[in-house]
Write a structure and sequence with these properties.
Helix content is 14%, strand content 36%. Strand 1 and strand 2 form a beta hairpin. It starts with 5 loop residues before the first helix and ends with a helix.
């Protein structure tokens, strides 16, 4: 979680978890995040699925093989993962005016 996630997470209502296979919890799990209406995106649910595999049967260590996630439908100008940078306007000024005068 990053600092810019804070305002978005204020609209988080609930988190659900489920295993891909209830008989074999080592196959992975799914998280479903439920959101109330908010100014950031139109989704009411976002999910993230982790597909795992046992790497070492002797210690039960798991490795993540694949991660799937839903696409976030950001509202215009509200994507908190994009930094807005103001571009400096280049142009004229006193130096350009002086150069133009010398050419005449």
């Amino acid at each position: 979680i990053q600092e810019w996630d804070g305002p978005v997470l204020e609209y988080l209502v609930d988190i659900e978890t489920s295993n891909h296979d209830n008989d074999d919890t080592k196959k992975g799990f799914k998280l479903v995040f439920h959101f109330s209406e908010n100014p950031y995106f139109t989704n009411t649910e976002l999910f993230k699925e982790y597909y795992t595999e046992e790497m070492n049967p002797y210690n039960g260590e798991l490795v993540v093989k694949e991660i799937k996630a839903s696409n976030i439908e950001w509202k215009a100008g509200k994507d908190v993962t994009v930094e807005k940078v103001a571009k400096k306007v280049k142009g004229g000024g006193a130096k350009k005016a002086k150069q133009k005068k010398e050419k005449e």
